[in-house]
Amino acid sequence: MFPAFNDGLLWFKSSRSAGNGACVEVAFVSSSAVAMRDSKDPRGPVLRFSAGSWQRFVADVRTGEIDQPRS
After folding, report:
1. CA-based max dimension of the chain
2. How many domains in the chain?
3. Which residues in 38-62 are b (16+ Cβ under 10 Å) and which e?
4. Which top-rank group of organisms is this from (predicted)?
């Protein structure tokens, strides 16, 4: 992940993301909250998650728990 700055938060997006702007960015708001936004619209809506919810989401992504079925 690498940082991008906006609104006083340090935003990150994956170093694997392509340069087409079709990715999400994440900011650690505090020790108990994480924010996510669309990189194409940095001034647009921001989703906010508790740290526990974010940790569960990341764990599920890593284990493939939420992968879409391949056709």
Report:
1. 42
2. 1
3. eeeeeeeebeebeeeebeeeeeeee
4. Bacteria
Q: Phi/psi of residue 22, each to 5°?
A: -95, 65
Return the H-helix or E-strand segment holding 12: strand 9-13
3-state secondary structure of 4: strand
Whether residue 68 lies inside any domain: the answer is no
Full-prediction pTM beyond 0.70? yes
pLDDT tens digit sequence for 3-49: 454 578 899 888 777 777 678 899 999 899 999 998 888 888 889 99
What the block records as the tokens of 45 is 């809506």
